[in-house]
Hints:
This protein has 177 residues and is mostly helical. It has helices at residues 37-50, 61-68, 78-83, 87-107, 113-124, 136-146, 149-164, 171-176; strands at 17-22, 25-30, 54-57, 128-131.
Amino acid sequence: xxxxxxxxxxxxxxxxxxxxxxxxxxxxxxxxxxxxxxxxxxxxxxxxxxxxxxxxxxxxxxxxxxxxxxxxxxxxxxxxxxxxxxxxxxxxxxxxxxxxxxxxxxxxxxxxxxxxxxxxxxxxxxxxxxxxxxxxxxxxxxxxxxxxxxxxxxxxxxxxxxxxxxxxxxxxxxxxx
Length: 177
């Protein structure tokens, strides 16, 4: 775990913060990796240092709830998913989530810990929280609709291979991304 001494001072935001200036508004964008202990520290340091009035997190509300409640997918109504013709999307989402968990276990951090840290730090700072992402189902549905049969088959095969293969990536490679 990185200490705040790795930043220029405890009163300056970490180097992962990009400042965007708009008329009447300053936005501090914290670049993170979803499976990174450094990103968790950067988010906490940025919010503690900057004391923003609003914290936007790249999550939709259903994904926020799923992150907050481990195993929330078990509450999914499978019959409803099949009825809505979303079984393949659910499978892709579960495979991707399983891969992230596998990678997170290897690196010793839970996927999405950066986003949870932002929520916790934002609440502690008294900031207004905004879940600033469109619903994951919309994103998955649009992506899936644009893929042809062959690309869908390739994608599902590659996703399933991810579950079997052991992720071979280091924490340094995650940070470099």
